[in-house]
Each structure stands twice: as structure tokens, then as C-alpha cells.
Design brief:
The protein is of the alpha+beta class. It has a single domain, classed as P-loop containing nucleotide triphosphate hydrolases (Rossmann fold, 3-Layer(aba) Sandwich), CATH 3.40.50. Helices cover 16% and strands 39% of the residues. It has 2 helices and 10 strands. Strands 1-2-8-5-4 form a 5-stranded mixed β-barrel. It is globular, with a radius of gyration of 15 Å. It starts with a strand and ends in an 11-residue tail after the last helix.
Length: 153
């Protein structure tokens, strides 16, 4: 597929692709996730490719060589951070800073390279944003990667 304008982090080995225009909070949210134990895959540009071997049938995210290991931190510039070289994507997040979000949204998805991935909408600057993403990853892991997670009631 090539390179997309996004940031990617790995939370418990699940790749989260953070999408949004410049200034929408991709790097800021990635920094807060990294501070809580996530690993950076790529910031600002993410290379997406079909998985091979054990990752066959998946989308794998990697950093472009020129940006590998760097996170842009406003006020500091690009800084080196610990990274993982690649991750299998499990979740895509469209960042909507300052916009009201539905309380109980219908499940949505998007596709890269013919692979359907769950899609969430999130205000990255809400204090709960990193926790919301950790909960989403936990739900995906419990549901073996399927979305949405059924709730019996």
C-alpha cells in the first residue's frame, strides 16, 4: 500500500493506527500511551504492507527509515524513543479533537490492503483517551480480534 499520514503505536502487541490531520493530537496521544507502557512503531508517516508468514492475511505497520525511532514532541522537536520495528494492525482510530462523540456509536470499520479493521472515533485530548484505547485493545484480545465485542444483557 505504501505510506500513510498517521502515527502507530503497539499496545500489548496490538497495532493502533492514529489518523488525523496535522495538529490533531496523533503524536501527543502516542506520547501519553508510550508513557503508560506502549511502544512507538512510527510517527507522522507509517508504512503499511501485507503481512507474511504468521502475519499472513494481516496489515503490518513499519516506520519509514528516515523517521524510525523518532517521535515529534511539540516544544522539543523530534526526540528518540524506544520503538518496535513492526506490528500487526488491530485497530484504527480517527482523531476528532474537540468534537462531540456519540455515546453509544454503531460499530464501524475501515479497510487497508483488503483487510477490514475496527474503527473508533476519539477526542485525543480527553484525559481518558489512553485508557479508552487500552480498553479497546483488551476487548479485541478477549474477542480474538473480532469487533464489536458482544455484550449480553
Amino acid at each position: 500500500m505504501g505510506t500513510v499520514h498517521a502515527t502507530c503505536v503497539a499496545v500489548e502487541s496490538v497495532g493502533i493506527l492514529l489518523r488525523g490531520p496535522s495538529g490533531s493530537g496523533k503524536s501527543d496521544l502516542a506520547l501519553r500511551l508510550i508513557d503508560g507502557g506502549a511502544s512507538l512503531v512510527a510517527d507522522d508517516r507509517v508504512h503499511l504492507a501485507p503481512g507474511e508468514g504468521d502475519d499472513s492475511g494481516a496489515v503490518v505497520a513499519r516506520p519509514p527509515a528516515a523517521l524510525a525511532g523518532l517521535l515529534e514532541v511539540r516544544g522539543l522537536g523530534p526526540v528518540p524513543v524506544a520503538t518496535v520495528p513492526s506490528v500487526r494492525l488491530g485497530l484504527v482510530v480517527d482523531l476528532r479533537p474537540g468534537e462531540p462523540l456519540e455515546r453509544l456509536p454503531d460499530p464501524t470499520s475501515c479497510a487497508y490492503l483488503g483487510v477490514t479493521l475496527p474503527l473508533l472515533q476519539l477526542d485525543p485530548f480527553r484525559p481518558s483517551a489512553p485508557a479508552v484505547l487500552r480498553l479497546a485493545v483488551a476487548a479485541l484480545r478477549r474477542a480474538d480480534g473480532h469487533w464489536p465485542v458482544a455484550v449480553d444483557g
